[in-house]
Structures are given as C-alpha cells and as structure tokens.
Amino acid sequence: MPNPCPIVLDLDGTLIDSAPDIHACVNAVLRQHRIAPLGLPRVRSFIGGGVELLWSRIMAACRIDPAHRPELIAAFMARYHDATALTRLFPGVTEALGRLADDGHPLGICTNKPMGPTRHVLQHFGLSQLFPVVIGGDTLPKRKPDPAPLRLAFDQLGGPGLYVGDSEFDADCAAAMPAPFLLFTGGYRLKPEAELPHLAAFDRFEQLPTLVADAAMTRPA
Q1: What are the domain boundaries of the chain?
Q2: Does residue 180 contact residue 200 with C-beta atoms inside 8 Å?
Q3: Mind telling me the catalytic residues?
Q4: CA-CA 20 to 30 A from 186: which of 46, 102, 163, 171?
C-alpha cells in the first residue's frame, strides 16, 4: 500500500477493556480499608488519566483523607501490576493489528497505564512483538493529554503518523501535537463524539485498516 506511516495506539479503552480488572483492584483496596466499594460504571468513568488521577477521583468520590493516598496507591499497584483475569481485547483487535503490521505500518503504544502493567497485558494477549515502541504513563514526567509521550512514541517509530484512541485524553493529546486522530467510539470517553477533535471515528476494529489506508494515502511520500 502507498505511504506506510507510524501508527500509535492507546491501550485501555482502545485495544483492551480493562475496566473490570481495574474495578476489582480498586474495590479490593477499598474493602481492605473498610471503605464502601464503587460500582463498575463509576470506576470506568475515572479511567484514562493514569493511576494518580484515578485515585484522586476515587478519593474525592469516597471522601477519603488525602493522608491515606500513598498506602492506597501502593496497595492498588500490588494488585494491578498483573491483573488480566477480567480484561478482554475488543473484538477484531488482533486481526486489525495484524493487517496494519502486514501493510508495513510501524506500530507503537502510548498509554497513561504504568509501564509494568502495560508490558504484562501486552504479553498476556500475545501482542508484545507487534509493538517495538511502548510509552507508558511513567515513561516521562508528563502524561497525556500533554503531547510529550505521543511525540516520543512517534520519534522512536521514525516520524509523524496517526494516533488511535478512545478518550478525551487521547483526542486532546493528538490535537496538542498536532497529529491526525482516529477515535474508537466503544471505549471510555465521557464527552459526545462530536466534541472530540478527530479525523475519523469507528466502532468496529475491522474498519481501522481502511481508515488508516485512507489517511496514509493523503500523506506525502
């Protein structure tokens, strides 16, 4: 195909539905500290900005004394590092990634998920070999929506390309680069699709290779 280009993808809410595992880890910590558990939709709405923001939102929702923050996050990370039992790939992800790789697109990950859990979940689903570049939420001092992590991912892949994500964090990060953004509408976004700047949107991963091909054809060789 003409003009292969780097493709960087978000992870949670884009390639994987990890909310059930995150929810389970959160509630295990809350119960351990005799705090009432939260429902899955509430926890899902807190996902996207990384562990620190996740727990800022949980602590505000549960009115937890900020003095307990370090121990709560430490207890969460001990469970979260290898939590994959409830996590699932979104339908069609493996096939779409295989097609993109076969078409010559260098693939990378840019996520606010910490590097340890990111590496573990990619290995768990047999995807590690597809991603020579992985930027986690603790790779740099700044996280999405700051463009620094996405910029680093593109630099390591050899140049500018497309970003694929599901949330406000991803859309704002791509806009700040700026980079063309493809929006997966089946993830964890809170705002309406129309309020997120994007080149194109999709709700099934079998659509992604065609969207990438269309966008790549408009890029200079």
Answers
A1: 7-17+88-217, 19-80
A2: no
A3: 10
A4: 102
